[in-house]
Amino acid sequence: MTTVIGAGTTTQPTPGAENPGADFLSSLSDDNKTLATQQGWNDSGAVFDGYRAMQGQLSSSVALPGEGATPEQVSDFYGSVSQHWTPKDGYEFKMPDGLAESFPYDEAFAKEAGGWFQEAGLPPHVAQTLHDKWVGKMAAAHEQTTATQAAEAAKTAEAASAAHDALVKEYGQPDSDGYKNLIEKAVRAQTALKDGGVDVTDWFADKGLMSEADEKGNQQVLDPTAVKLLAFVHDKALTEDGLSQIGGEQGGNPFDKSKTDLAKQDELLRTNPERAKTLIKAAGRDPALFGL
């Protein structure tokens, strides 16, 4: 602005000409002046520059779906966002601490679950959390199963030991003829009953008659009463098999080492070799030893 006084003229500076920002800021309200100062807007040009920069940022930003968005729009939004953190090559899971060495970690299932997590767009730390929860649950179940199996094995071993002691006390050591003859009778009786249409295999198994065979195929007696019962059936009831007669055969089985009758053996071997062979097997012995 220029002021003329008298004949001469004097040029006065326009207010704010030396500091344009002061004139710009002075035209603003106190709140806007504070905002402009914080943003470094000293003139209107700075404001427009800031606006243009903000538009550039907004053009590359992702907007949250509004309340009226369709399920497809929401799914597309989260699918687009998750691409920024979902690993392209799959998740690298770390094993939780404290797992038992015997824990059967299922790598195939972990990989399959990782594919589900990737499809769901889970961030790596969320996927790891779910993985650890799953492993923890499986580890707890494995620990419980192991403890139960150990308890059952201990119970079986205790029963086998008690049965062994009872049978050894009455029939001798397992390698003795009396002991082996008893077991052979029980097995033959069970087989004969099954062949005759009376299958008691499962019933006696439930009673714990014999343990499961070990790696050598050996079994342990778990219930001496059951074994003796089958031996009794063998001796007293299997008349059709020719093993004995109800009420007992005169002198019993002459091939039984506990009741050996050489004269009766000789008579049967000469007169009825087939019956002799049957009785020899019933006694748990080999017919070949008698020339049959």
Sum up the structure in keywords.
single chain, about 290 residues, mainly alpha, 2 domains, two-stranded antiparallel ribbon, 11 helices, 2 strands, rod-shaped, disordered N terminus
What does this structure look like?
This protein has 292 residues and is mostly helical. It folds into 2 domains: 73-144, no CATH class; 157-290, no CATH class. 57% of the residues lie in helices and 3% in strands. The chain has 11 helices and 2 strands; from the N terminus they run E-E-H-H-H-H-H-H-H-H-H-H-H. The protein has helices at residues 20-26, 30-39, 44-59, 71-82, 107-120, 124-171, 177-195, 201-206, 224-236, 262-271, 273-282, and strands at 2-5, 8-11. Strands 1-2 form a two-stranded antiparallel ribbon. Strand 1 and strand 2 form a beta hairpin. Helix 7 packs across helix 9 and helix 10 (262-271) crosses helix 11 (273-282). The protein is rod-shaped and about 140 Å long.
